[in-house]
Amino acid sequence: MRINDVLRDKGGSVVTVAPDTDVTALLALLAEHRIGAAVVSADGNRVDGIVSERDVVRALAERGPAVLQESVQRICTVEVHTCGADVRLDDLMRVMTEQRIRHVPVVDGGVLRGIVSIGDVVKRRIDELETERAALSNYITTGG
Amino acid sequence: MRINDVLRDKGGSVVTVAPDTDVTALLALLAEHRIGAAVVSADGNRVDGIVSERDVVRALAERGPAVLQESVQRICTVEVHTCGADVRLDDLMRVMTEQRIRHVPVVDGGVLRGIVSIGDVVKRRIDELETERAALSNYITTGG
């Protein structure tokens, strides 16, 4: 399975915020869409950063409530791990679990195509492994 | 594999907070321990609730910066999904992924023994499935 199949399955919509959006508006947006992170993008296509609920709580722990009036570009991660739509599910999952990355924007030709979360990836990888194991067990039981 | 094996592997320490801890102190604690949730417990043994970084950001989105001075008991989840140490890894993982639960305190005889995160569970379940698949493949290739 490739990331393209994941996007087809879950849909390719991504919530983006402009870099000068303030953190209060970001929190409202995350709650409204029931998500944990948004892509920071000035033009809605290029990935300029990613900002998560974790970035918000860590910044609050460091600098206090003033963070709520800051712009998201102050707290976001700008070195974003992105991937192409043709990447294999198991390869991406390995990178995400090893590097503890929760969200990966999917980019094709410089244009944002979607976003996959660790939950999206893990759910499908486990389905894939369970299917493979069942097929192998069946092969052994029935003799192929 | 059972949850007991996971705890033996990762260690059984759990960060707890008293119910009257304020949210600002909670955020400092989560940052210090690099974790996403803490167990709320008046006596350090009984699970009175669980409070996560998500609870904080959702409360901030609803009620604004005053939340930072509120006590964690105001924002925590009190109906906590806990499990025993003898629960099977695959059973717990199914519940966590289906119900989108990120953290499950492990309780034995009413006493808090540890906490497992979705990351802990998934990593080991995938290792388990990959090992099983390799054993089955090997059985087929070598004839057992």
Explain how this protein is built.
2 copies of one chain form a homodimer. With 144 residues, chain A is α+β, with helices and mostly antiparallel strands. In chain A, 49% of the residues lie in helices and 16% in strands. Chain A contains 6 helices and 5 strands; from the N terminus they run H-E-H-E-E-H-H-H-E-E-H. The first copy, chain A, has helices spanning 3-10, 23-33, 53-63, 72-75, 89-99, 118-142, and strands spanning 16-17, 37-40, 49-52, 103-108, 111-117. A 3-stranded mixed sheet of chain A has the order 1-2-3. In chain A, helix 2 (23-33) links the parallel strand 1 and strand 2 (37-40). In chain A, helix 5 (89-99) crosses helix 6 (118-142). The two termini of chain A are 23 Å apart. The model of chain A has no long low-confidence stretch (mean pLDDT 92). The interface between A and B is medium-sized, with 34 and 34 residues.
Question: What percent strand of chain A?
Answer: 15-25%
Question: What is the terminal separation of chain A in angstroms?
Answer: 23 Å
How would you write the strand order of the largest sheet of chain A? 1-2-3
Average pLDDT, all residues of chain A: 92
Order of helices and strands of chain A: HEHEEHHHEEH
Write down the overall geometry of chain A. elongated
Give the beta-strand count of chain A.
5
In quaternary terms, these chains amount to homodimer
Protein chains sharing the most extensive interface: A-B, 34 and 34 residues
